[in-house]
Structure formats: structure tokens, C-alpha cells
């Protein structure tokens, strides 16, 4: 069931032997859009100390009594590592909590809710898996955000502002954030709308602004959200159909193109030039349809998309990067690495996501770029984002020197040697891809 986060505030958190306190806010992963922790105010019991409780500790919620039972004792919470919730939560703090409670480390095990897979994650993993840590844990976790802090952020459509973040809607079985609630305020007084996380292009944390890949007109005409009613599947279908987007609950059709019923002749190359032009237009609906069509065309569209990645509008370059990642042609890796240095942040972000989609096969081109252009700040930022993705957990040991250089004092000096060392360690077939 979908539930509003604002209505979960002040719910009781109940240990095995008594109440721990009340929910004050939630921390979510802005990369996966998943609730990771609840912040609990212990009140008089622990002198108003705030503690973090992982969703891994939650038992089945008691919705009627507004209570969250947890698989902990009050004594465990009393003796748990102290964390200042007024400061960014570091990966080291998370690791300390996980070690103390024997919680699984979500960043090292790839434990994510997808589709109907349940969450919280199991707490009976092998001890060795529970103790596993990232090689470098001291910096703050850049993806851990407070729902309280993000509420009120301005939301920017492709052609103007549409309102502010008013709330979040989560799936109470997976703890995934399904929607961001947009309060349109003075623009459309009294109307609230929902935005699916995949429609968010980026979030500017320093400017407190969320950028969505939607037009004001499409938002204006979208189905209104009534906070007093539950989010039904009928409403969700209307919402996704309005924006022409694939439905997240239809795993079998999520990757289907808008051309699924067309003939092979209609998918031939002569259509590609017009489609790549459509990637750069202002209409989000047209861009989405053009990108889906190009992805369905597949390999014949790769070369035109590579050209679009360098000589189109910001919209076009970003959509080209996204399409190349979805097609998955390894020949696109060098161009996507180059796009990590694009002047537009949105393009750099989408290029990084595309490289993540290519998996380890995009690594040689990325490592080669770090050897050749270690002084590029944007390249280093993009590489840091790519290599931090959980899809690379298998390569954490090998990538350790590069991550250390990226997070070190003088990365421009240390990166070439570290990247060269890691590149040489790759199996020959994989190394050859960079050529």
C-alpha cells in the first residue's frame, strides 16, 4: 500500500521491551529513492537523544495503532553508537551502527527492493557478509538525505517552476519512495500532483531545487492528487498514461517501445535522423517517445546517437546519453566518458548513469580518461559517481586504488598511476575494449 510519509511522523517505535520513542523524520537514498533509516526521538526516556533505526530492524508495522515494532531491545539502543543527526551521516557512522546491531550493509550487498521483492532486508545473513565494509568509509554518504530537509524544495519543470515538495509517498512493503508530492501553491492553487522519481533529472542540493523532465503544461493537465485518498492503481495508470511513461509495476513491459506494434520496415534507419532531432525539442513527451523508438531500433541508432551526444541541445545530448545506456552498445563507452565533462550538469549526470548501465565494460574507457585527464574536476566527479554505484561491488577490491586517489588530497597527481595500475589488472579481453 502507498502511504504518505507526513502521516508516519510521530508514530511510535516499539522495542521488544517497551517504547523507544516517536518517528521524527526519515533518511532516504537519493540514488535509489529508498528509505534507509528512521530518525527516532527518544523523548524523556533517553534525554531526547535522537537515534537512527535501519529499516532492516523493522518488523511488520501495526498500522491501526500507528506503531513500528523493531527487533531491538531498549538496552541495545541505549548502548548504540551516538550519532549527531544535525550533521551529515558518514559511511563510517553507518558501518559502526551495522557492526553494533549486526545489520546488513546495503551499500556492500546490493540489497535493494525491486518489483515485488520485500523489504526490509533479512537480518540473518552470514556474519562475514554483515561485517563487510566499503574500502573508504570516512566521507559523508552523499546519497543519504532527510525527508524533512527536502520538503519545501522548489520544483523546476523544463520551462518554469511548478511548486514545492510537499510530501513523499512510499510503498509500505518495499520502503521505496514511489512519488514526490508537488504542492503547486500559487501557480495552481489547491492542486497537488505526483512525480515519479525516474522523472526527476537531478536535484540541486545547494540551491534546494528539484529539476523534473516535464513541462508545465503537462503538469497542469495531469491527474490531481487527493491526499485524503489512498493512491490506487487506477490513479497510477491514469498518471503514467498521461505522461506516456512505462509503468513500474509492469516489469515485462517496462522496456517496451512505443513502436512495439509497428512493422520492421517502419523501424529502418531512414527514420533515425528525424528521431534524433526530436531528442532535442522542448516537449518532454516528444523526447521520451523519440528516445524509446531509438532504443527499440538498437544498434543502427548508435552512431547517430554518438553524434547527437556532441552536437545537439542540452536536452538532445542528455537523451542521447540515456538512450546509449539503454541500448548497451559497448562502443559508446568512450563517448559517454567524454560526456562526463559536458558543460551541462544534466548531460553529465545522464552520461554517468549510462556508464553504470554498461557495467564493468565501461571501466577501461573511464580508467583511460582518468590517466589522460586527471585534472578535470567534472571527469573526477563523474567517475566518483559511477564507481560508487553498487553494481561495481564485485570490483571494490580492484578499484580501491582509484577510489583512494579520487578521494585523496591531490587526485590530479595520484590518479594516473592508480588508474594505470587498475587498468593493467583487468583481464586482457576486457582491457581490449578501451581500444
Report on this structure:
The termini are far apart. It contains 18 helices and 13 strands. Mean pLDDT is 78; it is low at 108-141, 252-268 and 428-435. The strands form two sheets. Strands 1, 8, 9, 10, 11, 12 and 13 form a seven-stranded mixed beta sheet that branches. It has helices at 74-79, 91-101, 106-109, 127-130, 147-150, 216-220, 233-243, 272-278, 284-297, 302-311, 314-327, 333-339, 345-358, 363-372, 377-388, 396-406, 411-425, 428-431; strands at 2-4, 12-15, 18-29, 34-41, 50-54, 67-69, 144-146, 154-157, 160-171, 177-183, 192-195, 200-204, 209-212. By secondary structure, the protein is of the alpha+beta class. It folds into four domains: 2-145, PRC-barrel domain (SH3 type barrels, Roll), CATH 2.30.30; 151-243, Photosynthetic Reaction Center, subunit H, domain 2 (Photosynthetic Reaction Center, Chain H, domain 2), CATH 3.90.50; 258-327, Leucine-rich Repeat Variant; 332-435, no CATH class. A hairpin with a 4-residue loop joins strand 12 (200-204) and strand 13 (209-212).
User: How many strands?
Assistant: 13
Number of helices: 18
Quaternary structure of the protein: single chain
Question: Judging from the principal axes of the Cα atoms, what is the shape?
Answer: globular
Q: Give me the CATH superfamily of the largest domain.
A: PRC-barrel domain
Domain tally: 4
- Broad CATH class of the largest domain: Mainly Beta
Mean pLDDT: 78
The profile of the biggest β sheet is:
7 strands, mixed
What is the CATH fold-level name of the largest domain?
SH3 type barrels
The class by helix and strand makeup works out as alpha+beta
**Low-confidence parts:** 108-141, 252-268, 428-435
Rounded to an integer in angstroms, the radius of gyration calculated over CA atoms is 23 Å
Distance between the termini: 49 Å
What percentage of the residues does DSSP assign to strands (E)? 15-25%
Q: Examine the secondary-structure arrangement and name the CATH architecture of the largest domain.
A: Roll
Amino acid at each position: 500500500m502507498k502511504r504518505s510519509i507526513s502521516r508516519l511522523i510521530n508514530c511510535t517505535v516499539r522495542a521488544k521491551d517497551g517504547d523507544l520513542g516517536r518517528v521524527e523524520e526519515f533518511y532516504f537514498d537519493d540514488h535509489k529513492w529508498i528509505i534507509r533509516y528512521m530518525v527516532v526521538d527518544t523523548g524523556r526516556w533517553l534525554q531526547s537523544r535522537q537515534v537512527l533505526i535501519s529499516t532492516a530492524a523493522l518488523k511488520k508495522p501495526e498500522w491501526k495503532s500507528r506503531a513500528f515494532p523493531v527487533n531491538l531491545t531498549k538496552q541495545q539502543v541505549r548502548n548504540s553508537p551516538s550519532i549527531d543527526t544535525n550533521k551529515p551521516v558518514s559511511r563510517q557512522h553507518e558501518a559502526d551502527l551495522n557492526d553494533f546491531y549486526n545489520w546488513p550493509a546495503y551499500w556492500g550487498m546490493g540489497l535493494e527492493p525491486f518489483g515485488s521483492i520485500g523489504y526490509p532486508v533479512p537480518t540473518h545473513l552470514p556474519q562475514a557478509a554483515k561485517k563487510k565494509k566499503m574500502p573508504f568509509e570516512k566521507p559523508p554518504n552523499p546519497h543519504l538525505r532527510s525527508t524533512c530537509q527536502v520538503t519545501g524544495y522548489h520544483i523546476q519543470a523544463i520551462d518554469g517552476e511548478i511548486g514545492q515538495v510537499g510530501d513523499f509517498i512510499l510503498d509500505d512493503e518495499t520502503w521505496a519512495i514511489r512519488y514526490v508530492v508537488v504542492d503547486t501553491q500559487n501557480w495552481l492553487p489547491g492542486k497537488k500532483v505526483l512525480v515519479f522519481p525516474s522523472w526527476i533529472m537531478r536535484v540541486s542540493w545547494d540551491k534546494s531545487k528539484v529539476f523534473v523532465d516535464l513541462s508545465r503544461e503537462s503538469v497542469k493537465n495531469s491527474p490531481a492528487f487527493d491526499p485524503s485518498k489512498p493512491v490506487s492503481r487506477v490513479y497510477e495508470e491514469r498518471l503514467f498514461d498521461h505522461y506516456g511513461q512505462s509503468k513500474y509495476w509492469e516489469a515485462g513491459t517496462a522496456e517496451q517501445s512505443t513502436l512495439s506494434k509497428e512493422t520492421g520496415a517502419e523501424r529502418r534507419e531512414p527514420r533515425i535522423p528525424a528521431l534524433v532531432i526530436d531528442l532535442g525539442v522542448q516537449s518532454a513527451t516528444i523526447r521520451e517517445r523519440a528516445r524509446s523508438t531509438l532504443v527499440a531500433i538498437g544498434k543502427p541508432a548508435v552512431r547517430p546517437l554518438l553524434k547527437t551526444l556532441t552536437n545537439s541541445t542540452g536536452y538532445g545530448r542528455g537523451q542521447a546519453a540515456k538512450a546509449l545506456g539503454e541500448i548497451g552498445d559497448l562502443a559508446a563507452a568512450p563517448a559517454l566518458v567524454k560526456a562526463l565533462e559536458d558543460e551541462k550538469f544534466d548531460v553529465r549526470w545522464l552520461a554517468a548513469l549510462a556508464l553504470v548501465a554498461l557495467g564493468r565494460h565501461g571501466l577501461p574507457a573511464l580508467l583511460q580518461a582518468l590517466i589522460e585527464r586527471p585534472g578535470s574536476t567534472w571527469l573526477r566527479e563523474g567517475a566518483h559517481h559511477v564507481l560508487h554505484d553498487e553494481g561495481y561491488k564485485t570490483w571494490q577490491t580492484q578499484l580501491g586504488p582509484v577510489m583512494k586517489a579520487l578521494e585523496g588530497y591531490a587526485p590530479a597527481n595520484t590518479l594516473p598511476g592508480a588508474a594505470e595500475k587498475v587498468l593493467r589488472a583487468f583481464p586482457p579481453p576486457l582491457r581490449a575494449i578501451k581500444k
